[in-house]
Structures are given as structure tokens and as C-alpha cells.
Write a structure and sequence with these properties.
Blueprint: H1 3-77, H2 79-84, H3 95-110, E1 117-122, E2 127-129, E3 134-135, H4 137-145, H5 152-160, E4 167-171, E5 182-188, E6 200-206, E7 220-225, E8 230-234, E9 255-261, E10 264-272, E11 278-285, H6 286-289, H7 294-322, H8 326-335, H9 344-374, H10 384-389, E12 399-405, H11 413-428, E13 432-439, E14 442-449, H12 455-473, E15 479-481, H13 491-507, E16 513-515, H14 516-522, H15 532-544, H16 547-563, H17 568-587, H18 591-594, H19 611-633, H20 639-655, H21 663-670, H22 674-685, H23 689-706, H24 711-717, H25 723-734, H26 738-744
Parallel strand pairs: 15-16
Antiparallel strand pairs: 1-2, 1-6, 2-3, 4-5, 5-6, 7-8, 7-11, 9-10, 10-11, 12-14, 12-15, 13-14
Helix pairs in contact: 1-7, 11-12, 15-16, 15-17, 15-23, 16-19, 17-19, 21-22, 24-25
């Protein structure tokens, strides 16, 4: 290439590069400027429209709330209702008085608008009075609401608890016959003087009161109490809670703002109620609003694409007249391979092509070797002819796999090459072919033994080679080797054996040479130790939010089993048992509490295989769970109830062997009614008391099964009335039969 041609080539290269950048960047900059301006204008208009819409909702809802208050005052002032609330029990109320109260409610309902139905609930003697009937709250629920989205516990709590102010709650019917959403408005009838029964007034409203026809449909509609800083109504079914809202949402005045809640950006418009200390909030995801701009975006993308392809065409036109094609370059290389006119650019291209070909062959060869130790399906493994085509030939049918772990500070290609050289020198003298593979932090080697001798002699020969390797490396590190296998189809099994052996060597901190068969014989009979008392103690401390105590218990278990030098298989089974204990507590946490800590993930602890990694991962999980539980415990007001709950836990753990242990028996012991005890226990543990008794019995049963005790004996010692009951309950809890668990845990 002469000087004139070189200058022309350089000039053309600069020309097409500058031209292409201009063609691409000018429309791109224009698009960015107009897009930013367009989105700013659109956002301002949407925020103004949201503010007008939430104002319409406020006026409409305030009108309905005023009407509900008028109804409440009317009923509170009526003699029929006053007389009804003077009685101490439902049995003492004359039928005539009940009928009079019912008529008063019917007449009141007849002249109000916007309220579909009215009910009066007296929690002290469980009486529900409506316009057409009077009955208990349970009978009312079974008759009218059993096919709704309410559960009876939700319904009972809503209408029976003393309300400090008005409460709103959504519900709808499960059947498509009536898909209209409803709202229950619950408010105390009045501040009742001492000696009178407490009563809640429940009004059934159509959900359309929160979405008048003149306003738009919101993604989420919230009504907050600015005095108590809590959410009264949430149309998103609890997806947004009080802690996520900014302080501005509880202050007076009409406003609009943008706020990131969770993973989404919201546009929020708010206004004050004219009746109560309420705040109406409309929340919209910003991503849902800007679909209208897609037309502009699509048009711009098409325009930029056209510009891009025009630029490519322009470049192709320039290069067609300025550069040689690949075929011409190859022909020139062949023509001038031995000539004096061979230019530097041809030499560079020739060497680059050769290097690419060599690299490709090297990658294919390494992938084939890696497949031999990682694929266990015979049909997927390459044949001997395919292996030979890549230079992989075997001198015999005797194979083994050796692994050598390197640290992160040594994970460089130069270091790996040096280790491969040392291993090759050590084994070549013993007529053993070595094929290397890399898996994560391991340097692995497939050993193909050329001399067929007695098994012990072969192991001695490999051990001598491995000793030589360590001496050449001039340091002692754990080196692991599998058993000898007799076909390359079993190399996957050999690789697993080598990894397990290396993990075992790290576990016992022995920087030496280890064979799989030696590990099996040394660790025979060593199974993991995880007592039922330890599991219950971890669960109890977790429920208290005591992170230090939980990690202390886990560290004790790890130290005990490390000292026992259990096998990697037993290690994995132990770690899964500890993880299972944490998962039991984690899965029973309140969803609203867990929403405060969305980053808690159980996936890592289910995949860990070593004590060190597991402890770090489980500590993160325990910290998150304890944070949630400490948040709940901080809200407990009645310490006397919590002490009673702890006493019940102690009693159950002492009496779990008693066949007759039940809710009624424990209630008699702590001097509570069964209903009160059940409510107390569920409040603090999240479990039914019967489920907790079963979990304690199953935990002890698992411990006994590991000792090889008979199934009938285990059932009797753990408080099950019969063997059949024990087997049914165990399978429901653990998804396997007691016999299967006993086999897995090493009891047989």
C-alpha cells in the first residue's frame, strides 16, 4: 500500500465516521429535548386533573358521611334504642322492645339516601338488630355474609371491637350474581355512660360513593386519619401501609406530589375532609399515565431506525470503493506468503486468523472435558470418536477426578497455568494422562491411568503423584481425589465424590491429600446432631425477636457437628433442618409486617453447602425476621398477657407427652376460657394452639426417629393417641412418612 492510498484510506475513514455520528446524534438529541419537554407538560396537566378529581371524591364522600352521622344521632336520641341498651343480657330483653328497636331502624332507613342498610350491634350480649330481623352476629354472618370476601373473624372483629372513630372496610360477593362492591361504615353509636351496653352502628354503602361518576378511576384511593396517623380505608387491599406514606399525606391542605413507594413511582393528590379529621389521597402510578406518549416514541424510533440504516448504507458505499474484501485479503496472503511484498497488515491478519482458529479449538476441547464431569446423561456425552477429533484420547478405562481449590487472591490465569504445569509434571512420570477443567474456584483434573494393577497399588501411585505435586508447589493445601471408575461415563459421579471429599477436608481443616474411600471409612456412623429441644429453643427465641440468642443456638449446633466431623451429605441435611426451623417461623409472620422488610429472601440458605457460607446467609435471614418480630413485640401493650402466653409455652413443652393435652385442659390450667386462650395464643404466635402442640410433638418425634426407636414407641412417647394418628399427622407436617424420615436421617 503506497503513501497516497494510505492517506486516501485515512481520509475516507474519518469522513464516514463523522458523517455517521452526525446522522445518528442530531435526531437523537432532538428527540431527547422534545421528550423531556413533553413529559414535563404532561405531568403538570395530570397532577392538576388528579387534584380536581380527588376534590370531587371528597365532596361526595363527605356528604355521605354527614348523612351517616345524622342517622347515628337520630338513633342515639330515640327512646327505643336507649331502652334496648339498658339491659345486661340478650335474654332479658323483651321481644316487644326488640321489635320497637327494629321498627325504629326501619323507619330511619326509609328516609335517608345513599345508605343501603343499617344494623345495630351490641357486642356485650352479641345482638344484631336490623330493619327486618334481630339475631346473633354469627347467625347474621351465616345468613347474609357467608358468601362474601369477609371471614367470620374479620367480621366479628370489625363489628364487635370498641371503635375510637369511624372505620371503613371493603367487601364483595364471591359469586358473580352480585359483583357490586360494598363498603361497611362502622362507628360507635355514642359515648355510652357507665352501666349501659356499648353499641356499634354498621351501615352498608355502595362502593361507588368512593368513585362518583364525575371523577376518574384511581389506581389507589386512601382515606387517612390525620389525628391518629393511620389509614382508615385502602382500596389496594393493604399493598400500601402508613409507614410508606410521606408526612405531607397527614397534613392539612390541597396538594400534589411525586413519591417513590416500594418499587413504583406514584403521583399523589390529597385534600382535607370538610367533616372529619380525614385526608383523601389519590395515588396513580406514573408509568400508567404515559402510555399516550407511545405514538410519539414509536414514530421517533422509526425515524431513528431509518437514519441508522441510511448511515450504514453510506458507510457501505464508502468502504466498497476504499477497502479490499475479505476474499481479496485471503488471496493476497496466499499469493505473497513467501514473497518480499508481504505487508505488515497481511501478516497481522494472517496471525489473527490463526489465533482465532486455535482459540476456538481450545474452547471446544475444554468444553468437552468440562461436559464429561458435569453431565450425567450418557446420551449427551460425546463419543470416543468425537473426543478424538478434538485431541482427547484415553489410554485405558481407568479414571479418577482430582480437585484443587484456589483462593480468590490466586484466581488468575497465570497462577492456574503454573498449577497445571506442576500437576502435569507430577503425573507424567507415572504414565497418567491429565485433562484439566475449571469449575468456579476449583482446578480439576481427569486422571486417565495407563497401568492396570491392583486397586491399592493404583491408589498408592496416585497418592505419590499428588505428594510430588504438593512438593513442587512448595505448600500444603487440601487436595481431593475420587474413587477409581471404569468408564468415562462415570466421571460425573467421580467429580461429585471429589468435591465432597474436598469439602470434608476443609471441614476438618486438614491441608493434606484425601481420597473419597478414606473419607467414607473415617466418617462412617457420624450423623448430624440436632435435638428437638434445640429446635424448639431456636423457634421460641426467634418469636421473641432475640437475634443474639438464635445465632448462639445455631453456633452451638454447628460447633457440635463440626467437632463430630460429619460427612458433607450429613452437613447438607443438617443445614436444611436448621433452615427449615427458620422457615417455619418466617412463613407464619404477618404479611403486613413482612411488607416492611421486602428484601428478606430464603433462597440462599436452601443452596448453601458449607458451615461458613450458611452461617453468613442464615444470620441475614434471622436479622430480618427478628426485626419484624421486634417491631410487632414493641406494639404489645399488655405485658401480663405476654407473660401468660410464655407460661402456656412452658406448660406445652412440659406436658406434650400427655395424650389428653388440649385447648380445654390448658385453659383450665391457666384459668382462662378456651376462646380467650385461643385468641391470646394466636395473637402472639400467629398459630392455633393445637398446631403448636403438634409442632412440638413432631420435633421430639424426629429426634427419636434418628435414634432408631420403633414407630409405636415414638408415637406413645410424643403424646399421640395411636400409631395411625401419629403417621397421619407426621406426613401432613413433613410431607413424608416417619419411616422415610427415619431412613433419611440415618435411624435405620
Amino acid at each position: 500500500m503506497n503513501i497516497r492510498q494510505s492517506k486516501r484510506t485515512t481520509s475516507i475513514a474519518v469522513t464516514w465516521f463523522v458523517s455517521y455520528m452526525v446522522v445518528l446524534l442530531v435526531p437523537l438529541c432532538v428527540f431527547i429535548v422534545f421528550s423531556v419537554r413533553y413529559m414535563a407538560v404532561l405531568t403538570t396537566e395530570i397532577e392538576y386533573f388528579n387534584a380536581l378529581s380527588i376534590r370531587q371524591v371528597q365532596l361526595y364522600v363527605d356528604n355521605v358521611v354527614q348523612e351517616s352521622y345524622s342517622v347515628a344521632e337520630t338513633l342515639n336520641a330515640s327512646e327505643e334504642i336507649k331502652k334496648l341498651l339498658q339491659y345486661s343480657s340478650r335474654e332479658k330483653i323483651p321481644v316487644l322492645d326488640l321489635y320497637a328497636a327494629q321498627e325504629r331502624i326501619r323507619k330511619t332507613r326509609s328516609y335517608v339516601q345513599g345508605i343501603e342498610d343499617i344494623y345495630l350491634f351490641c357486642p356485650s350480649f352479641d345482638l344484631a338488630v336490623g330493619k327486618t330481623s334481630y339475631t346473633s352476629s354469627q347467625t347474621y354472618f351465616a345468613s347474609y355474609l357467608s358468601d362474601s370476601t369477609f371471614s367470620f373473624d374479620q367480621w366479628r372483629s370489625l363489628v364487635s371491637d370498641k371503635q375510637p372513630s369511624v372505620r371503613l372496610s371493603d367487601f364483595s360477593w364471591k359469586t358473580p350474581a352480585d359483583s357490586t362492591g360494598k363498603i361497611l361504615l362502622v362507628r360507635p353509636l355514642t359515648v355510652i355512660p357507665h352501666g349501659k351496653a356499648y353499641a356499634n352502628l354498621v351501615m352498608v354503602l355502595d362502593r361507588s360513593i368512593l368513585q362518583p361518576a364525575s371523577s376518574k378511576q384511581f389506581h389507589t384511593l386512601l382515606i387517612t386519619d390525620t389525628y391518629r396517623h393511620r389509614i382508615i380505608y385502602n382500596s389496594s387491599s393493604g399493598l400500601i401501609d402508613t409507614a410508606q406514606l410521606p408526612d405531607r399525606c397527614f397534613k392539612s391542605g390541597l396538594f400534589t406530589l411525586r413519591q417513590k413507594i416500594g418499587k413504583n413511582d406514584f403521583m399523589i393528590a390529597g385534600t382535607d375532609s370538610g367533616v372529619l379529621n380525614w385526608k383523601y389521597l389519590a395515588l396513580e402510578e406514573r408509568s400508567e399515565y404515559f402510555g399516550q406518549s407511545s405514538f410519539i416514541q414509536r414514530t421517533t424510533i422509526i425515524w431513528l431506525s431509518v437514519c441508522f440504516f441510511l448511515g450504514l448504507s453510506f458507510i457501505a458505499l464508502l468502504t466498497r470503493h476504499s477497502y479490499k474484501s475479505v476474499d481479496d485479503v485471503v488471496k493476497t496472503i496466499d499469493t505473497h506468503a513467501n514473497g518480499k511484498r508481504r505487508g505488515n497488515e497481511f501478516l497481522y491478519i494472517h496471525n489473527a486468523i490463526e489465533k482465532m482458529q486455535e482459540d476456538k479449538k481450545y474452547q471446544i476441547r475444554n468444553q468437552m472435558i468440562t461436559d464429561l464431569v458435569q453431565k450425567f446423561d450418557d446420551k449427551k456425552l460425546p463419543s470416543r470418536s468425537e473426543l478424538a477429533g478434538q485431541g482427547i484420547t484415553f489410554q485405558s478405562n481407568l479414571f479418577a477426578v482430582m480437585v484443587y481449590r484456589i483462593g480468590s487472591s490466586e484466581d488468575s490465569e497465570n497462577y492456574r497455568d503454573r498449577i497445571r504445569t506442576v500437576i502435569t509434571r507430577a503425573f507424567s512420570a507415572a504414565s497418567i494422562l491429565v485433562y484439566f477443567f475449571d469449575v468456579e474456584e476449583y482446578i480439576g483434573a481427569i486422571l486417565n491411568i495407563g497401568v492396570e494393577k491392583e486397586s491399592d497399588e493404583l491408589y498408592e501411585r496416585m497418592e505419590i503423584c499428588m505428594e510430588t505435586m504438593c512438593r513442587l508447589e512448595n505448600r500444603r493445601v487440601p487436595v481431593a481425589c475420587s474413587n477409581i471408575v471404569f468408564t468415562y461415563f462415570d466421571l460425573y459421579t467421580a467429580f461429585v465424590q471429589a468435591i465432597d471429599t474436598l469439602n470434608y477436608a476443609r471441614l476438618i481443616a486438614d491441608a493434606g491429600i484425601h481420597f473419597y474411600r478414606d473419607m467414607i471409612s473415617h466418617a462412617a456412623g457420624h450423623t448430624f446432631e440436632y435435638s428437638a429441644e434445640t429446635e424448639v429453643r431456636i423457634m421460641d427465641e426467634l418469636k421473641k425477636g432475640n437475634e443474639t440468642a438464635v445465632m448462639g443456638c445455631i453456633d452451638e449446633v454447628i460447633a457440635l457437628n463440626r467437632a463430630a466431623m460429619i460427612t458433607p451429605k450429613s452437613t447438607r441435611f443438617l443445614l436444611l433442618n436448621i433452615a427449615g426451623t427458620v422457615i417455619k417461623v418466617f412463613s407464619r409472620l404477618d404479611e403486613k409486617a413482612l411488607a416492611l422488610y421486602p428484601d428478606i429472601s430464603l433462597r440462599p440458605i436452601l443452596e448453601d453447602t458449607t458451615f461458613e457460607i450458611f452461617r453468613d446467609d442464615i444470620k441475614k435471614i434471622v436479622h430480618g425476621v427478628c426485626e419484624v418480630l421486634r417491631h410487632d413485640i414493641a406494639l404489645i401493650q399488655n405485658r401480663e398477657e405476654f407473660s401468660l402466653y410464655n407460661a402456656v409455652l412452658v406448660y406445652i413443652n412440659e406436658q406434650y407427652t400427655n395424650f389428653n393435652l388440649s385447648l380445654n385442659l390448658i385453659a383450665d390450667e391457666v384459668d382462662l376460657s378456651p376462646v380467650a386462650l385461643s385468641r391470646l395464643f394466636k395473637k402472639y404466635s400467629g398459630d392455633c394452639i393445637s398446631d403448636y402442640i403438634i409442632s412440638v410433638r413432631i420435633a421430639h418425634a424426629k429426634q427419636l426417629l434418628k435414634t432408631g426407636a420403633g414407630l409405636a414407641s415414638v408415637a406413645s412417647q410424643c403424646g399421640f393417641a395411636s400409631l395411625r394418628t401419629f403417621m397421619r399427622v407426621f406426613k401432613n407436617q413433613e410431607s413424608m412418612t416417619p419411616g422415610q424420615y427415619e431412613t433419611m436421617a440415618g435411624g435405620k
